[in-house]
Structures are given as C-alpha cells and as structure tokens.
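Please produce the structure of this protein holding flavin mononucleotide.
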Amino acid sequence: MTTLLQINASINNGNGESSRLANQFVAAFHKRHPKAAIVVRDVAAAEPVPHLNAERFGAFITKPEARSATQHAVVAYSDTLINELKQADVVVLGLPMYNFGVPSQLKAYFDHIARVGVTFEYTEKGPVGKLTGKKVYVFAARGGVYARDGVNHGIPVETQTNYVRDFLRFLGITEVEFIYAEGLNMGPQAKQAALAKAEAEIARLAA
Ligand SMILES: Cc1cc2nc3c(=O)[nH]c(=O)nc-3n(C[C@H](O)[C@H](O)[C@H](O)COP(=O)(O)O)c2cc1C
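Below is the modeled complex.
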C-alpha cells in the first residue's frame, strides 16, 4: 500500500498558503490513489518540534542500555518522526519562507531525523543516506520573488531550495520536486497569479 506523509511547516496552523497548496496536491493524489494511507505531521503549529539542545542530542548518542528514562523518551520521539518518514513512499512538504530561511521548527524537525546509524551512516566515501526510494514534493510559499536562475536582480538570491535539497540528499532522498508560489505579499493580483500558477502545476502533477 502506498503511504503519503504530508509535513506542514507553517506557523499558521494548517491554514498557511504552503499547507493549502500541499492539501490540494494531497487531495488530488488521494483521488488517484484512493487506497493510499495519508499521514499528516504538523511540525510548527499543532505539534511543534522542540529545538535540539545538548540534552536531546546527548540522548541520541548515549547507548540504549545507558539511557535514562528522559533520554529514552527523547529517542522514542525522534524514532516516531523517523519511522513515519521511513514508511512514506511519497512525502509532501509545505514550506513557508520565514526571514529568508526555513521555519525554525522545520530545522528542529530535520535535527531530530538526522541520526547517525539510523538515517545515515559515515563511510569511507563520506556520509550515505539510508532513506532511499522516496519522492518528495515541496510546496514553497514566499511573500517575495527570488531569482532562481543565479541572477540577483537586486533581490536576495534564495538559499532555501538548496538547503532542503542538500539535507534530503544527505538522508538518501534524491527525487525532490519544488513547486513555488512566490510574490504572495506583493498585492492581490500577484498573489492570485502565483496561486493559479502553483495550482496549475498541481493539476499537471496529479494528471
Ligand atoms: C515571520 C515571517 C517572515 C517572513 N519572511 C519572508 C522572507 O524572508 N521572504 C519572503 O519572501 N517572504 C517572507 N514572509 C512571507 C511568507 O513567506 C508568506 O507569507 C508565505 O505565505 C508563508 O507561508 P505560509 O502561508 O504557509 O505560512 C515572511 C512571513 C512571516 C510571517
């Protein structure tokens, strides 16, 4: 059975533009794959992922038999996030841009799923990701418009796309497609046009 994991990273409680576009894609996907299991993980609003600190990272690197009850709970939480991702064939990520980067809670989520020996391992050839065979669709919502052709028209070049791509590749996830809705805070016309373009892409992907 196909499993789809939808990760919402908007602070707007599932009502963010990124979540809305992700919802539309998931609805279209479900129509095509009625038997697919859909799992939703809201990392920023409903169940915010805590920041990684020395205590939490310490739990990851402590041997299982030496872990305290608190450390076991930290690892169990991380394992839950990882297993959800492991079981997914398709991952849909609603990705807002906040202050030029990914939401800090999404970074915290990434910090909880990057576990040596679990989701990646170090080899003589460098790190090798263990989460292979997945397809990821990223719905990136931005207030502004960014040059993605490497040309900076007086607008900051965005680093979010490469960061997310690099991180997922590190875990072994190489098939990543970005769908952008840009200029959402540049007036109603720009917003409407951006959402219409993203929706057309969703229709194309779902066809
Ligand atoms: C705190 C905050 C910071 C933002 N920073 C940026 C930014 O750096 N660049 C940008 O283009 N838009 C920025 N925006 C606009 C968001 O990208 C836009 O509202 C988008 O729809 C957010 O996704 P969401 O609706 O799914 O939460 C910011 C919005 C907020 C609330």
